[in-house]
Specification:
By secondary structure, the chain is α/β, with parallel strands linked by helices. It folds into 2 domains: 289 residues, Aldehyde Dehydrogenase, Chain A, domain 1, CATH 3.40.605; 188 residues, Aldehyde Dehydrogenase, Chain A, domain 2. The protein has 14 helices and 20 strands. The strands form 5 sheets. A 7-stranded mixed sheet has the order 14-15-16-13-12-17-18, sandwiched between helices. Strand 12, helix 9 and strand 13 form a beta-alpha-beta unit. Helix 2 runs antiparallel to helix 4. The N terminus is likely disordered. The structure holds NADP nicotinamide-adenine-dinucleotide phosphate. The site of NADP nicotinamide-adenine-dinucleotide phosphate has 29 residues, from helix 7 and helix 8.
């Protein structure tokens, strides 16, 4: 394999993913892993292996930290305007290459092309937004209450950052970390998910072309993330861990980071309630439910996981959702017109199947879908369940698939209690025409983000993140996202 071929352009031959699927990206160089092993990449729509990437070892990870350390002082000293222009160029190149990137995402993740295009647009926005933020980093200045000195607060880059991302948004979860880290003046090592490594490497080629110097962004893939991450966190030069993934792995990483008191930002799992009051605009609620449930075929941390519908609108909403879900076109992500692609793995399908069978055994009724599709690929059909009881496992676990479980509620206090009956607190949706009620319910729901009469809340300009066991810290937002990659330095100054 010719590693110098690893660039991505719009005329890239998409049948030859191997042209850019090899090579750890360390210090601006592509290299094999030190043990020579590879991880195979599977297309979930076909179950075919279509690429391979190196399987990094802890020694490779330390080499990436070395590269990030060598690049750190130069990048930190690069004027914010220059950093901003490079980030802006990353945005422009991603937009120019969006169709190629979307196809790549669709091939390795399985998601429908329309979702993949949406992801590329969203992912690119983090570069545009942080290009604008890079030149707006300010400090603070105050007078000590004693009057004896001034209090000056300087914001500085936190240092070398380890970034770990999941497979469900291979581009956006990476750029949501890389763009603010670079804007702040940090250098990074990204470890993408093993199922979807190609997008991360393709984006690395874009950063390079945009002018990101060698060593500022390093990318490595591994099938053994525990020891590889531990080696990086044990290195005293690493000062930050920013993780997006499951709560279970987040807990392990918090414990690992605690050994070395490494600063952590955690974007973890969700169990979003989607609440529809009797007075809601039915069509708007159905449109919103389709987005909140079916973006990425339900494989989203913000996905509506529990739909609570008030008695007066329950039948109309359930039937309306059944019609819309049953009409979705299921198929390979890259096929035109497909609206619901496959799940990421066979294991993911098995989990959804288990959760649906459990709900049905406890009394839920299947309105559409409800069993695994008999075809090649990791497919589960769009499914609507009604009368889902509170003790169903899916009311407490992330479904992460195209299953909409509907439960009935009578009054506001009851639904707030049920919505909060979870260890998670990432996202929630409320539909009502009564703004006062919407605001009141929103204030009582334990969630980092609430969408009121909307099915979508993700926005680089807004602080994304959860409470309870859904996470620590925020990504995006006016200064919030970048602040996660900065450290305060206080100066007491006598004047
Ligand atoms: P995951 O299993 O937690 O994996 C996430 C990342 O962590 C992957 O890169 C994975 O590598 C790595 N990892 C796994 N075990 C590790 C270990 N012991 N040490 C270091 N790294 C380790 O999550 P996932 O299945 O990829 O993603 C789905 C989850 O992410 C869901 O819970 C979803 O809600 C959550 N999520 C949250 C947000 C948010 O913003 N809050 C956004 C998207 C997704 P491998 O791939 O090699 O296992």
């Amino acid at each position: 394999m010719n590693m110098s071929q690893m660039t991505l352009s719009d005329d890239q031959d998409m049948s030859d993913f191997r042209a850019f699927s090899h090579g750890l990206y360390i210090d601006g160089q592509r290299r094999p892993s030190s043990n020579g092993r590879v991880i195979e990449v599977v297309n979930p729509s076909t179950e075919a292996v279509f690429a391979a990437v190196p399987d990094a070892t802890p020694a490779d990870a330390v080499a990436a930290v070395d590269a990030a350390a060598r690049a750190a002082s130069g990048w930190r000293a690069t004027p914010p305007r220059k950093r901003s222009e490079i980030l802006r160029r990353c945005f422009e190149l991603m937009v120019e290459r969006s169709e190629t990137l979307a196809t790549l995402i669709s091939m390795e993740n399985g998601k429908a092309l329309r979702d993949a295009r949406g992801e590329v647009a969203y992912a690119a926005e983090f570069f545009r937004w942080n290009a604008e933020e890079a030149v707006r980093i300010t400090g603070e200045f105050g007078i000590a209450p004693s009057g004896t000195n001034r209090i000056v607060v300087d914001y500085q880059p936190i240092g070398i950052c380890v970034l770990i991302t999941p497979w469900n948004f291979p581009a956006a979860m990476a750029t949501r970390k890389i763009a603010p880290a670079l804007a702040a003046g940090c250098t990074v090592i990204l470890k993408p998910a093993s199922e979807t490594p190609l997008t991360a490497y393709a984006l690395a080629a874009i950063y390079e072309e945009a002018g990101v110097p060698p060593g500022v962004v390093n990318v490595l893939t591994t099938s053994d993330p525990g020891p590889v991450t531990a080696a990086m966190l044990a290195d005293p030069r690493v000062r930050k861990l920013s993780f997006t993934g499951s709560t279970a792995v987040g807990r392990l990483l918090l414990a690992e980071a605690a050994k070395h008191v490494v600063s952590c930002s955690m974007e973890l799992g969700g169990n979003a309630p989607f609440i529809v009051f009797d007075d809601a605009d039915l069509d708007a609620a159905l449109d919103g439910a389709m987005v909140a449930k079916m973006r990425n075929a339900g494989e989203a941390c913000t996905a509506a996981n529990r739909l609570y519908v008030q008695s007066g609108i329950y039948e109309a909403f359930s039937q309306g959702l059944r019609e819309r879900m049953a009409a979705l076109k299921v198929g390979a992500g890259t096929e035109a017109e497909v609206e619901c692609g496959p799940m990421i793995t066979r294991k993911a399908v098995d989990k959804i199947d288990r959760l649906v069978k459990d709900a049905v055994a406890r009394g839920a009724r299947v309105l559409c879908g409800g069993s695994v599709l008999d075809r090649k690929g990791y497919f589960y059909p769009p499914t609507v369940l009604c009368e889902v009881p509170a003790d169903a496992e899916m009311a407490h676990e992330e479904i992460f698939g195209p299953v909409a479980p509907i439960s009935r509620f009578e009054d506001e206090g009851d639904v707030i209690e049920r919505a909060n009956d979870t260890e998670y607190g990432l996202a929630a949706y409320i539909y009502t025409r009564d703004l006062a009620r919407g605001m009141r319910v929103a204030s009582k729901i334990e969630s980092g983000m609430i969408a009121l009469n909307r099915g979508l809340m993700s926005d680089p300009a807004a602080p994304f993140g959860g409470v309870k066991q859904s996470g620590l810290g925020r990504e995006g937002g006016q200064h919030h996202g970048i602040a996660e990659f900065m450290e305060m330095k206080y100066l007491a100054v006598t004047m």
